[in-house]
Amino acid sequence: MLPQKTVKSFQAQNRTLQGSNSHQTKLSAWKIKQDLSNSKSILKHGQNNLVEDCGHDDNQAGDALQIAVGYFEKGPIKTSWSENKTLERHLKTVENVAWKNGLAPEEIDILLNVALSGKFGNAVNTRILKCMIPATLVSEDSVVKAVSWLCVGKCSGSTKVLFYRWLIAMFDFIDHKEQINLLYGFFFASLQDDALCPYVCHLLYLLTKKENVKPFRVRKLLDLQAKMGMQPHLQALLLLYKSFAPTLISVSLPVRKKIYFKNSENLWKTALFAARQRNQGLSPEPLKLMLGPAKVRPLKRKWNSQSIIPLLNSSNYTKECGKKMSLSDCLNSNGSFPPEQLQNFPQLLQNIHCLELPSQMGSVLSNSLLLHYINCVKDELVLLRLYYWLSQTLQEECIWYKMNNYEHGKEFSNFLDSIIRAECFLQEGFYSCEAFLYKCLPLWDGFCCQSQFLQLVSWIPFSNFSEVKPLLFDHLAQLFFTSTIYFKCSVLQSLKELLQNWLLWLSMDVHRKPVIRSPLETTLGESMNSVSKLIHYVGWLSTAAVRLESNSTFLLHFILDFYEKVCDIHINYDLPLVILFPPGIFFPALLSLDASILNQLCYIMHRYRQNLTAAKKNELLQKAKSEFNFSNKIYQEFNYYLTAMVGCLWTSRPFEKGMHIDPKILEKAGVAEYKDSLNLVHHPSLFSYAVFFLLQESPEERTINMSSIRGKKWNWYLDYLFSEGLQGLKLFIRSSIHRSSVP
Amino acid sequence: MSVLRPLDKLPVLNTATILLVGTEDALVQQLADSMLKEDCASELRVHLTRSLPLPSNVNRPRIDLIVFVINLHSKYSLQNVERSLHHVDASFFLGKVCFLTTGAGRESHCSIHRNTVAMLAHTYRSPLLFCDLEVEEFRATMARRLVRMLQICAGHVPGVSALNLLSLLKSSESPSPEDP
User: Fold this and answer.
1) First to last CA, chain B
2) Where does it live in the cell (chain B) (predicted)?
3) What is the rounded distance in angstroms from the CA atom of residue A729 to the CA atom of residue A63?
4) Residues A12-22: what's their mean pLDDT?
5) Do A495 and A538 contact (CB within 8 A), yes or no?
6) pLDDT averaged over every residue in chain A
7) CA B119 to chain centre
8) Do A547 and B160 touch (CB under 8 A)?
9) Residue in chain B nearest A467 by alpha carbon
10) Are B63 and B34 in contact (CB under 8 A)?
11) Which residues from B are below 8 Å from A403, CB to CB?
12) DSSP characters for A383-440?
C-alpha cells in the first residue's frame, strides 16, 4: 500500500506548492515546505553552476524563464485575448530555454504538474510536455507526482500517451527509480488501456525486476495477448518475464526478433543527445550534489570516452543516500553489491554471488570486470537485456540513418569498436549486432567504418549458412566484386576470422551438449555442411577475385591465408571436415611469380596431406562406417594436385595428364624444351634463387649454366633454398617426395 | 534512333563512356564530378541525361554502361526511370545496366519502398546499388565502384566481360561449387 500513500502525500505537496487553499494541517504543510526549500537550495546551486557556464545572455533568459514558470504555476486567471498572448510568450520562453540548455529539475517538477493537472488546454499541455528536457537530471519525485495526476483523470488520452513516451525517453535521466518501481502495480493496471498499452509495456520492460514478476501478472499478460493477438510489445514483456521466471510461462516466444517497441525517443532525440553530452562534459560537482552520496563515481575513462555508452549506475544504489558506507556495511545491509563500487578483480570474486547488474546494461560494454561477470553467469536475462539495449542503440546511432549529423561518424565507429572489443573479450558474437548487419549491410558503401563492419561480420554467431547468405553474404559479394583490391583483402581477412570463430564454437560444442543459447540445435552433420558452404563461398569469391585482379600476388596472399586455416580443420579443431581449394586458386598460386606464394602453397599442401592421412588412420581404426567418412573424391582431388605439383617442381614432367599441346606449336613459339621450365630451378619465382646460388659458387663466371644444378648440386641447391626461408617448400618436399628420385 | 543499342557503334580507343539517367540533376552532376576525379587507366566520358530516349541528331560515342539513378524520396524519379527503360535495347541488360538508389538511409522521407526498386532491378536482371549521394564520402566511394564497373563493361579489364560481372553480382543465383 505504500505507493498510494506516497501518491497522496505528493498531491498534498502539490497544493501547497501551487499556493492554493490547503486543507492540510499547518504543521505538515510547514514540514513539506521546509523539505522543498531544502531541496530547492541544493538544486539551485546546481543550476547556478550551469547558468554561469552559459554566460550573461542566458542569465536574462533564465530570469524570463523564472517568470514564465511562475506564470504557469499560478494557472490561467481568465481567458481573454491578451491573456492568450502572454501565455504564448511564456510558452515560447520555456521552449527556447528547454531546447537550448534544458530545464532544471525543479522547473521540470513544476511544469510537469502544470501539464498533467489540465489547468490549460490540451495543446498547451502537449507543448509543455514536448519541451520537458532536463538540463542534467529529472528528480524521481517529480515523476511520482506526475503519475499521481494520471489517477485523477484530468488529462486527456493523448496527453497520457505523450507523458508515457516522455517517461520512456527520459528514463535514464531519472535520478533513482525505487519509488517509481513501487508504482509498478499502477503501471501494470494501465495496460488495459489500448492506446497506452505499447508505451506502458515499454516502460514496464525498463522497470521490471525479478520481484515484480508474479503469477497473476503473467496470467493478465497472457489474457491480454489472447485478446489483442501477438503484439510485439506484449511479446517483449512476456519474454522478459519468462527470462525471470521460466516456470511461470510455458508458451513459446520468438527469441530472435529485431525491434519490439516503437521508438519513443524520436521527439526528444537531439535534445537527449545534448543532455547526455552535458552530463558527461560537466564537472562532477553538481551531479554529486544531486545524487547525494559522497562517492566519486568510478568513471572508466579507458573505454568510455564516447557518450553513447551510458555510465555505470546500479538501479538502487542511492538507497543509502546521505550515509557513507563501507564495503562491509553495504554487504550486510543490502545483500547486493553495486557495480559502480567494483574496482578490481578480487572484489569481483568476493562479491560475485551478490553483484547487482547496472540499471543500464549498455554500461557493461565499457567495464572489463563486468564483462568477466557476464561471461560466467548463466542467466539468460543478462544477455537479453544487453541485446535489447544494443539493438536499440545501434539502430539509433547508425550513421546513415542520421544523415544530417555526419560528424557523428567518429563517435559511432568508437562505439562499434567497444562492441567489438567486448565481443572479442567474451569470444562470442551478439545477436543484436547480427540483426543490425542484416538490416544495414545492403546500404553500406563498403567504406565508412570499414574495419568495424568487417570485424562485426567476423563475429556473426554460428548459423546456417544458406539462411545467412541472402541476408548478408550476397550483399557482401556485390561490394566485394565492385570494390578495390584492398577491400577484397580485408573481406577475405574477416571471413577467415569468421571461419575461425565458427570452428572454435563448433569444436567446443562437439564435446558437450549444446546449451540453449547455442543458435541452432543442429546435428554435427548440418553444422559441417554450413561450414563447408562458407568455405565454398570464399572459394568462389577468391576464384573470381583472382581473375578480376589479374593474379595479384597481394590478393593471393590473403586467399592462401584463408586456406591455411581450412587445410588444418581436421587436426586443429578435431572436426570431420577436409575441403580442398578450387583449381582457380591452386594453379595461379602454383604458377605465381612470387616465391612466398609458392612457399605458402607448399605448406598448405603439406598440411592437407597430414590432415588426410590422419583422417584415413581414424577411419581404419574405427572400422565401423561413420557418417563422416571422407569420400574418395577428396583423395583423388588431392592426388591430382599433388601430381601436378611434383610434376612441375621436381620431376620436370608437368601436366602429363589432362593437357596436350601440339609440339609443332611449341616449336613455333620457341619453347620446344618446356618440360623443365617449371622445376625448382627454372620456376619463374625461384629462378632468381637459382642464379644467386650459382653466382655464389663461382662469382667470376660470366655465363652460368642453369642445367648444371643436378645430382649433388641439386641437394645443395635445396639446402640453399631452405636456408633462404622457404620452410613450406622444405616441409612439402620432406613429406611428399622420396629423395631417391633426385633427377 | 529511339532505342539505345550497345553494339551499334565502334568503340573509341581506350575510352569508356557511362550514361547517368536521373531526375536529380544536382546529385547526378556531383556524382559525375566525383567519377571524373578518380584516376583510371582508360579515358572516362560521363554523359548525363534526365530521361531517355536521347536526341538522335547528336554524335556521341558508344555507351558502355547505363546507370539509372532513383531517388527513393520522389515517386517521379522512379516513374521517369521506368519510362526511360523502354528505350533501352534488351541486349544492354546483359551486364551493361545498373540501378543506383539514393536516399534509403532516411526511411521516414521515403515515398518508395526499397522492395519496389529491388523488384524493378530483378525484373530487368540488373544489379542494384545503394548509396546516399548527398554525403560526399559515400558519393566518392560509389564513384570509385562505378568506374571499376565501367572499366569492365568497356572491356578494359582483361579476362572479364560485362556479362561475367553481371553473373557475379547476381550472386544469389550463383551455382553451388559442389555441383560437378
Assistant:
1) 46
2) Chromosome, Centromere; Nucleus
3) 83
4) 42
5) yes
6) 76
7) 16
8) yes
9) B172
10) no
11) 105-106, 132, 134-135
12) HHHHHHHHHHHHHHH-GGG-TT-GGGHHHHHHHHHHHHHHHHHHTS--HHHHHHHHHH
pTM above 0.80, yes or no: no
Q: Does B142 touch chain A if contact means CB atoms closer than 8 Å?
A: yes
A276 vs B45, residue with greater confidence: B45
Map grid coordinates 598460386 to a residue: A589
Q: Using the beta-carbon criterion (under 8 Å), do B177 and A540 form an inter-chain contact? A: yes
B148: nearest CA in chain A? A482
Report d(CA B52, CA B32) in Å as an integer: 18
* Cβ-defined contact of B130 to A582 (cutoff 8 Å): no
A165 C-beta neighbours (distance < 10 Å), count? 23
Q: Which three cell numbers stand for residue A204?
A: 514496464
Question: Helical H runs in A19-152?
Answer: 26-54, 56-74, 81-101, 105-117, 122-130, 140-152
> Residue B141 is nearest to which of A447, A548, A582, comparing CB atoms?
A447
Q: What is the pLDDT of residue A138?
A: 85
Least confident of A277-281, A663-667, B6-10, B134-138: A277-281
Enumerate the residues of chain A whose CB falls inside 8 A of the CB of residue B159: 547, 550
Segment A553-566 mean pLDDT: 95
The mean pLDDT value for A431-441 works out to 87
A263 in Cβ contact with A272 (< 8 Å): no
Out of A473, A481, A536, name the one closest to residue B177 (CB). Answer: A536
Distance, CA of A208 to chain centre: 23
Mean predicted confidence (pLDDT) in A443-472 = 87
DSSP state of A461: P
What secondary structure letter does DSSP report for A211? G
| Interface contact A403-B169, CB threshold 8 A | no
Give the ipTM of the model, two decimals please.
0.90
Contact A139, A112 (CB under 8 A): no
Spell out which residues of chain A touch residue B171, defining contact as CB-CB under 8 Å: 473-474, 477-478
Find the DSSP H helices in A214-268. Answer: 215-228, 232-244
- Report the distance separating Cα A372 and Cα A392, nearest Å: 23
Q: HSE on the CB side for A411, CA within 13 Å?
A: 18
* pLDDT higher than threshold 60 for residue A283: no
* Residues near A137 by beta carbon (within 8 Å), at least 6 away in sequence: A105, A173, A174, A175, A279, A287, A290
3-state DSSP percent of chain A in helix, strand and coil, to 5:
70, 0, 30
Percent of chain B with pLDDT over 90: 44
B179 contacts chain A (CB < 8 A): no
Least confident of A119-133, A347-361, A458-472: A347-361
Judge whether B151 and B142 are in contact, CB under 8 Å.
Answer: no
Distance CA B101, CA B93 (A): 18
Residue, of A337 and A580, whose pLDDT is higher: A580
Answer for the pair A508, A473: CB distance below 8 angstroms, yes or no.
no
Per-residue pLDDT band at A175 (split at 50, 70, 90):
confident
Instruction: Decide if pLDDT at A499 tops 90.
Output: yes
CA–CA separation, A164 vs A154, rounded Å? 15
Q: Which of A129-133, A604-608, A703-707 has the lowest mean pLDDT?
A: A703-707
A478/B137 CB distance under 8 A:
no
The residues, ordered by sequence, that sit 6+ positions from A276 with a Cβ below 8 Å of its Cβ are: A307
**Phi, psi values for residue A58, rounded to 5°:** -75, -20
Provide the pLDDT for residue B180.
34
Type of residue found at A319: K
Decide: B115 and B131 in contact? Cβ < 8 Å. no
Q: How far apart are CA A268 and CA A387, in angstroms?
A: 23
Given CB atoms, is B47 within the 8 Å cutoff of chain A?
no
Which phi and psi (to 5°) does residue B97 adopt? -130, 140
